[in-house]
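Q: My labmate handed me this sequence with no annotations at all. I'd like to see what the chain might look like in three dimensions before we decide whether it's worth expressing. Could you predict it?
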Amino acid sequence: MTRFVCAAFTLLFATAVVASAQTQPARITDQDISDAYIYLLGRLMVTRQQQLDFQEGFKWNELVHRKPGGVDWPNPNLDVAYSEAWVAVDESSCTVVSVPKVEGRYYTVHFLNGWGETLANINARIFPNRPSGEFVMCLRGTNVAVPAGATRIDLPVKYSRVLARIELGVNWDEAIALQHQFKFRATGTPKLPDIPKTPMFELEAMPGAEAFEAADIALDSEPDLNVGLEAMQEKTRAIAKAVKDPAERARVDQVVRTRAFADLGKAGARIGHGTILNGWVRPGVVGEYGIDYVTRTLVDYRGIWANIKPEVLYYRGSVDQTGAELTGDNVYTLTFPKDQLPAQYATHFWSVIAVDGVYFRVLPNPLNRFLLNNQSKLQYGPDGSLTLYFADQKPADAPDGNWLPTPKGSKYRLTFRFYRPTEGVANGTYYPPPLIKR
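A: Here is what I predict for the chain of 438 residues:
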């Protein structure tokens, strides 16, 4: 009898343990915390910029026309004049975009969602038969009357970020005049959202556990449209609940600052899942990310508002031919053979800028020269090759138009852009030549 009672008790105890294990949530691992943090950080980068925009005075559905060079975000493109806006549409309201006739220069009106994903572009590539006129941005699935003759474009979300870009080219005055002809107007009165109040931070001092305290606000205010990331959202929300406990919050904060920051830095070397050749990194995805949330966060961090590959392709260079980091204490050359000049890989234009390794802003210099491009006063070699120079002082053998000043004492990286890429840039087989240290 005693044996029977003991056996029964053992069986009941084991059953209870199994049942308890089945009902208790799985422990949140350090890797869970790191993954969820990197996922969430991309959204927080966008909400951070949105708060800065509206603090500056942005108004919904109104374009802000920037002066050339007048933007303050990582890795700016100084070849174009930017105009910016936040757009709201809903079941009864659309936004009309008026696009002037633009000839002989690149332009696009670029719409992104709250995760930095490209939603739409208005330009001659997308609308070759009608590249100018009125375009009406509406919420997908709505039955809203649009102006006669206008082209309707459906957006999958109610709220989006807009960057209009127009190539400056040789005649800046003409470009700026065209820039101011891009106009927005709402067809109704859309319901406007509250701006998500998420942590404000500097790029060199990213948030710790406080990021998860804002997770529900960040996730509830903007759907992630990419199928396959639902588990990441659940994991992020689970950690948001866990940090309400002081002991768990302290643990999460420590893991973020040790594990997640390290994981993010390691991923940054390849821009997530990009490839490297000749010391140049080419991102695997950009502008449209699918399940690659790591690359999305890195791009939002180091080059927010990036467009898709058919519009522009970005290469990042941060090392010379030996693998050593680029520094303003050295002189570097970048030589393109005659049959591989950068102009042949871009329908519109190419450019290269140098930015610092912390804020990703252009490097101050006495000449206020921040990039080289196809509009620079370039000189070619006797054999038709092109050599660009990066140095604090102009090398004696460098044509002035081929030299980009890089101040002493600064570590930096280069960003090479090809607008409307062609040939090897478009298909991923081309990389710029290596940077040679003299």
